[in-house]
Amino acid sequence: MSIYLVLALIALAIFLIGWLGLHINPRPFPPFVQKAGHLKMVLLPNNLPKPVKRFYRQIYGDKLPRIESAVISGRARLRVAGITFPGRFRFTHDAGKAYHHYLEATFFGLPLMKVNEHYLDGKSRLELPFGVTEGEPKVDQAANLGLWSESLWLPSIFITDPRVHWEAIDNDSALLDVPFGKKRDRFIVRFNPVNGLVHLIEGMRYKGVTDKTKTLWLNGTLEWQRIDGYLLAKAAIIWHDEGTPWALFMPEEVVYNVDVKEFIRAKGIQSTQ
Description:
Blueprint: H1 3-21, E1 41-43, H2 50-59, E2 63-65, E3 69-80, E4 83-94, E5 98-107, E6 110-120, E7 123-128, E8 131-134, H3 137-150, H4 157-160, E9 165-170, E10 173-180, E11 183-191, E12 198-205, E13 215-227, E14 230-239, E15 247-256
Antiparallel strand pairs: 1-2, 3-4, 3-15, 4-5, 5-6, 6-7, 7-8, 9-10, 10-11, 11-12, 12-13, 13-14, 14-15
């Protein structure tokens, strides 16, 4: 057997091992220990843009829950350095105020890279294996957009939070105006004309700390499914200049109105006791 054939076989074996490792999904995180809290129901307002009102009637009916906090867990696909890894996530929200993101990119189902990100008191701190990013106003703006776009997993907040406003555009889209500290930020929300559900959220977001201009940032819904009794969307996150999703988030568990005061400032998933 020639040396070239041996090298080719070794290269093929490495490729196959890598391919297999990238196609084994991790186990889900253990269920969140706290039980869901009481959800007070409020009436759906009448003064909403037509597609917005249709959306809320689809997912809630004439009454919607007042959600104060949420813990969303599931599996993911995450593109890192051009390679798409399977992963898992647990996102914790103090509704409309703060979040904690914990993500793991995995290989053969085992954690390869862990990410802890906090958005607290209007400031972002991103901890990656190769460094920490904090104290960057452009990253804070990006985190605030993340906070509100992810609130599609606790969508009644767009009605119950008095700081949030909807404005009509047309029969299948509306403008969503949200707070950013003492400033404001905006999304265009597009609704599926057939089923009335949200299918795209568009915002302008800084991609990096050195960027002078914002990039169109898209949050698409791939599928709506019922989880723990609530309709939640599988989300595809896309930078417009890249064209394909850099992240897919597939929720598998949601727990509303739990005490997240300590957990939202923690790392990993350890504070679930």
